[in-house]
Amino acid sequence: MTDYYEILGVQRDATPEQIKKAYRRLAREHHPDVAGTDPAAEERFKDVSRAYDVLGNAEKRRAYDMGADPASPGGGMGGGFGFQDIFETFFGAGGGAPRGPVPRARRGQDALVRLDLDLAEAAFGAHREVQVDTAVLCPTCGGTCCRPGTSPRTCEVCGGRGSVQRVARSFLGQVMTTQPCAACHGFGTVIPEPCTECAGEGRVRSRRTLTVDVPAGVDTGTRIKMTGQGEVGPAGGPPGDVYLEVRERKHETFVRRGDDLHATLQVPMTAAALGTVVTLDTLDGPQELDLRPGTQPGQVLTLRGLGVGHLHVGGRGDLHVHVEVQVPTPADDEQAELLRRLAVLRGEERPEARLAAANPGMFAKLRDKLSGR
Predict the structure, then answer these.
(1) For an engineered disulfide with 226, which of 64, 121, 242, 260 has Cβ 3.0 to 4.6 Å away?
(2) 65 in a domain, yes or no?
(3) What span, in angstroms and rounded, lies between the C-alpha atoms of 178 and 267?
(4) Which residues form the domain of 268?
(5) What is the pTM of this model?
(6) Residue 354 within a domain
(7) CA dist., res. 136 & res. 19, Å (int)
(8) In this structure, what CATH number is given to the domain that contains residue 282?
(9) What confidence tens digit (pLDDT) does each residue in 266-312 have?
(10) What are the strands, taking DSSP E only, across the chain?
(11) Does residue 297 form part of some domain?
C-alpha cells in the first residue's frame, strides 16, 4: 500500500495543520505552473494531491490508518467501488453532476467579550472602550491572499470547476462520481504566490479598540451586539459580530433588585424615637431623608426615581432605604439611670413580653436574609 505519510514527508501522528502545510509546500513546488512540462514533476504533483486527498480527510485518514487505501479502487478493501461511494452517488454527497467552485471568502466568526461595569455605569449608561483580539483584513494583500502584483490562477487540475469526476466500477456498472479537487480544495483557483504577511489567509491577527455606548439599565448577563465588529473571514470574507456580555460589580452600599436599589440605614434609638433628617450618599449625590418621630426598626422609606434606569425605555427605579435601629448599651451608671427613668415614664419597668401575630412580610424578609438577597 502506498505510504502517503512518506509522500508528504510528515510523521504518522502529524496534525491536520502540519499535513496541510506540507501539502501546500509540495504542491507549489511540483505544480505544473512552476515545474513546467517535466513529466516527473507532474507525476509527483499527482502523488502529492492523492496523498493529501486521503490524509487531509479525517474519515479517509482513519480508514487508511486501519489498512485501507481510500484512493485506490474500492477503497483498498478489495472491491471496485466502495459503499461510501455508492451512498454519495445516490444521496447527494458525491453525485455525477459537477459542482461549481466554492467561494474562497467566508464569513468570520463572532466574538464574545466580557464587559465589567460599576453600578453607576449600569444605572446611567456609559461610554466605554474595549480591546478585542481578532482577525483583520491583511494590509498587504487586502484579502486577495496573493503577494502584491500577483493574482489567483485557474486550477489546471479541475479547470476552475472546483471538482473532478471519476468513473468507478461497481455491481451496478460504471458510475460517475464527483469529488472536490484536491489541488485547489474546491475553490477552482490556486494561489501561486501567497502573501507572506498573512500566509495566504487574507487576514492577520490584531488588537483593536472598540468604542461602545452602554445603555442605561443593563444588568449582569445583558449582551450588547456590535454588528460587523468581529473577525474578518478568510480571504477577506465579511466580518462577524462582537457581543459584549455585561457583568456588574457588587456595590459596597447598594443592592440591586431589578431596577430598584436597596440600602440599610443604621440610626440610633434616640434618632428613631425623636425623628431627624439624615443625608444619604446616593448615586445622584447627597440626598436628605426625613425620619419621622417613632420610626420603627425594619421600616422602609422610598426615594422615588433614584434607582437604575429602565433599559430602552424612559424612567428609573426607586431607592428603598431599610431602617435598622441600633439599641444602645449603657456605657456608665448615668446612662443606665436615664434609661431606667425612661422605662418608668413609659410604664415599661416590668414589661410583659408576648408573641406578636404572624406577619407574612417578616418571614419574607427572613427568607431574603437567609438566601443572601
Answers:
(1) 242
(2) no
(3) 83
(4) 255-371
(5) 0.63
(6) yes
(7) 26
(8) 2.60.260.20
(9) 999 989 999 999 999 999 999 999 999 999 999 999 999 999 999 98
(10) 111-117, 126-137, 153-154, 163-170, 173-180, 189-190, 203-214, 223-226, 242-248, 255-257, 260-268, 276-282, 285-291, 300-303, 319-326
(11) yes
